Amino acid sequence: MIKNSAAEMAQSLASGATTSVALTQAHLDRIADVDSKVRAFLHVDTEGALKQAADADAARARGEKLSPLAGVPLALKDVLVQKDVPTTCGSKILEGWRPPYDSTVVSKLKNAGVVILGKTNMDEFAMGSSTENSAYGPTHNPWDLTRIPGGSGGGSSAALAAFEAPLAIGTDTGGSIRQPAAVTGTVGVKPTYGGVSRYGLVAFSSSLDQAGPCARTVLDTALLHEVIAGHDPKDSTSINAPVPQVVAAAKSGDVKGMKIGVVKELNGDGYQSGVRQRFEESLELLAQAGAEIVEVSAPNFEYALAAYYLIAPSEASSNLARFDAMRYGLRVGDADGASAESVMNMTREVGFGREVKRRILLGTYALSSGYYDAYYGSAQKVRTLITQDFNNAFAKCDVMVSPTCPTTAFKIGEKTNDPLAMYLNDIATIPVNMAGIGGMSLPCGVAPEDGLPVGFQIMSPVMQDQRMYSVGAALEAALLSKWGAPLLSQAPSLGGAA
Amino acid sequence: MSALTYEDVISKYEPVLGLEVHVELNTNSKMFCGCSTVFGAEPNTQTCPVCLALPGALPVVNEKAIESTILIGLALNCSIAPFSRFARKNYFYPDMPKNFQISQYDEPICVDGYVDVEIETDEGPKSFRIEIERVHMEEDTGKSLHVGGSTGRIHGADYSLLDYNRAGIPLVEIVTKIVPGTGKYAPEVAKAYVAELRDILRALGVSDVKMEQGSLRCDANVSLRLIGSDVLGTRSETKNVNSLRSVERAVRGEMIRHAERLNKGEKVVQETRHFQEDTGLTRSGRSKEQAEDYRYFPEPDLVPVAPDAQWIEKLRASLPERPSLRRKRLQEQWSVPDKEMAAMINADVLNIVEETVLLGADPTKARSWWLGEISRLANEKEVAISGLAISAKDVADIVALVAQGELTDKLARGVVEGVIAGEGTPAEVIASRGIKVVNDDGALMAAIEKVCSEQSETADKVRNGHLPAAGALIGAVMKETKGQADAARVRELLLGHLGQAAN
């Protein structure tokens, strides 16, 4: 049962073949069986999940009109607040904090009857590409427990790949949904910026952060997308327009006549050979499905990483200023006679990890008087250029595609002492955030040399998210018929009941 | 104390002013969330995830606050930017929940305006133009109460209490360009500017403008330069100036303090200073020699403010009459001498006098009641006139009763006193105190005859044409009628009775 897609589970619930309580319990059992190896969850809300499941069953028994995903369990990245459930953002500084309010995403999930199993591990404050920066220890990739599950949303992607949940919520500031999806053989979508409310998403970089759906199939992702998306008056940057018809697009999977632009700059040098091979094969499958493959160029993408590492840390240095021990979270050094200033200093010294401190320092420096124009100011100009690159390219194609990451999952510990190598992981995902457009990663096979999953990235223009779902669904269908079974069936067993 | 007089200062130096005024808007909800803004609630009861800066919370702009700010900008003759942005001003302080303040930096909503203020000079009334650099929106911080220690400041305190009710209250900051050329009138001009702003804001209805409650706060920047020089001197910024009078005192005090330093060859330190209400002096605060780096950047959680041109024109059309023009109009309509007009403005009775006049009272009478007897009673009780229990309607009624001969001026004063004492409306006071004018000629004649027979010598003098002697008799008749008679009528009857033509 737990290896089914969310759509199949919803079908079983609708037909009465199973109940949400049974389905939820099955996932809780799976978590109990395998999570000591995977460590996807920071907090499992057994009681709350079973109650939500019982509520969903009761609503169904009363004959209420239910949302398509009612009663299906989900794993929530620990960066979104859920009332009364611990939210840490993978940081010591928020240890023990129970938010007094629901994020808009959580409110929408609850209204849709989706069952929230618990909170998943992440790089501290979503800063990282491996989940190794979590203050609570790394999450392990179910394909190979010695490898990283991607980051920052490695907990969510690992939970999907380990069948601990059929649905998950991630957040993507520079690739934190798509890169974990790529290295775990799952599907992850970063919707158009403003497509999903950020209210209650603990901010890393406000102008880049975007919550999105994660699952094992394109259709499941689309179903979840429509649950969480839509305008929210509590988020001024949320777009006041109808949600793109992503479920319809995922169901039809029609790419006939679509022009697919291959980004010249996001391929070649620095990309693992198996990654390139699977990417090329996928292009052929899409061509066979009726799409036209064209090459597009985005000359300014080469500056995206550098600009990102000025903008994101700048905003983070300000967003994270609120963690000062005054109102919530960790408080260190509050002895008699200690000044507020020293308590703030000691708490931040103890509460933040190395990568978070590194980025706060970077951002503080980049915003400083005398440096602002050269750093933050220039980075914003690069951002405009990247947006122009996308606009120019989208004039020639309907979607753009690239490998999601240059490589497959690396070993835990392999890059922890080399921040630049770590940052390079996001080279293909970052431009999407810089321009605020939509991006999806779906599995396109395993690399022959290491047997690890490869991600295929699809990028669509602002509020044209349905396009990436059409292409994703078409590729997924072509790959499935080629493989005969979902890619995850090739992943090693983690033991436990399946 | 200072050996230097103000005259010494202005004979050598020219003051240059710069004024920053913070105005708390009177919107019902805060700048970026729906919390109430009512003053004086229990600490930390008017808070929510947004104004407490809980993780994940996001600001949403209060549209009413934008409207109020545009109104202020228009009233100050500013251009309204078609596109303006909020920015984050980053610094750590315990009463600032986010550890950044959402403000406006290089893209304020209103720019380049002016206000003309008029003050009394040796050469008569003179107008000064104060140029406005910008009007921008921001949010207030919470409030710290530092307990223990002698200064009430954070340093030396045993502990501090934080109240976040005020955090996020909408503030508008109005910044002038530098104001040169006021010479010896700098203190008066500064005061007149703040008074004019207060009047404009009050007329707009956008703020309570209560300096004592902090809903209008003024920071006065003062520097001196040698007369004839065009190089600006080092400025000090005086905060904590909580009344109009203090604005004037603070500027004057700083001018003298700067001059003393300069005369001694010392440098003026660029710093924040705190005005001391009791001494009228300022105390050194934070040094601004090394400008604090606030690391401003555009607020990514908010979209730019792009007010619709039609909306702006609609707001422009709704602007109330400019207070200074209104004063001129009323002065003309009521034919008030300059000095009396100034007295009314000083006593802050213009509105209530106008209200009284609009209820039918004669302008001169209305003015004389509010400025005279009622002001006197307010002084006696040490309260503001607005704090007395007497309304424009009460005064208009009393003026009408006097005009109708139902009350004499003297009796009317008693009625005013009764109303203020809380005895009810004028009619109720008259009824309960049994006040009435004796206007029955028969009763008056009886009293006149009685007095004339008792003081026959005096009466004879009058009969013989010595009219000044009548005063004593009139006084006696008034006494006889317990002051309830109309003295003019008594005089008329008395003179007739003694064979003299009344005139």
Q: Quick gist of this model?
A:
By secondary structure, chain A is of the alpha/beta class.
Plain-language structure description:
The complex is a heterodimer of chains A (498) and B (503). Chain A is an alpha/beta fold and 498 residues long. Chain A has a single domain, classed as Alpha-Beta Complex (Amidase signature (AS) enzymes). Chain A is 39% helix and 12% strand. Chain A contains 16 helices and eleven strands. Chain A has helices at residues 6-15, 20-38, 46-61, 104-111, 154-161, 178-184, 218-228, 246-252, 273-288, 304-319, 340-351, 354-366, 373-394, 419-424, 430-435, 465-483, and strands at residues 41-44, 73-77, 115-120, 167-171, 187-190, 211-215, 259-263, 292-296, 399-403, 438-446, 453-460. In chain A, strands 1-3-2-4-6-5-10-11-9-7-8 form an eleven-stranded mixed beta sheet, sandwiched between helices. The longest helix of chain A is centred in the last third of the chain and has 22 residues, at 373-394. Chain B is of the alpha+beta class. The mean pLDDT of chain B is 91. The interface between A and B is large, with 45 and 31 residues.
Secondary structure: elements and pairs:
The complex is a heterodimer of chains A (498) and B (503).
Chain A: H1 6-15, H2 20-38, E1 41-44, H3 46-61, E2 73-77, H4 104-111, E3 115-120, H5 154-161, E4 167-171, H6 178-184, E5 187-190, E6 211-215, H7 218-228, H8 246-252, E7 259-263, H9 273-288, E8 292-296, H10 304-319, H11 340-351, H12 354-366, H13 373-394, E9 399-403, H14 419-424, H15 430-435, E10 438-446, E11 453-460, H16 465-483
Parallel strand pairs in A: 2-3, 2-4, 7-8, 7-9
Antiparallel strand pairs in A: 1-3, 4-6, 5-6, 5-10, 9-11, 10-11
Helix pairs in contact in A: 2-3, 7-8, 8-16, 10-12, 10-13
Chain B: H1 6-12, E1 13-24, H2 63-75, E2 79-80, E3 87-90, E4 100-103, E5 110-121, E6 124-139, E7 143-147, E8 159-163, E9 170-176, H3 186-204, E10 216-226, E11 236-241, H4 244-263, E12 271-275, E13 282-287, E14 297-298, H5 309-317, H6 323-334, H7 338-346, H8 350-358, H9 363-381, H10 392-403, H11 409-420, H12 426-433, H13 441-454, H14 456-463, H15 470-480, H16 487-497
Parallel strand pairs in B: 11-12
Antiparallel strand pairs in B: 1-9, 1-10, 2-5, 3-4, 3-14, 5-6, 6-9, 7-8, 10-11, 12-13
Helix pairs in contact in B: 3-4, 8-9, 8-10, 10-11, 13-14, 13-15, 13-16, 15-16
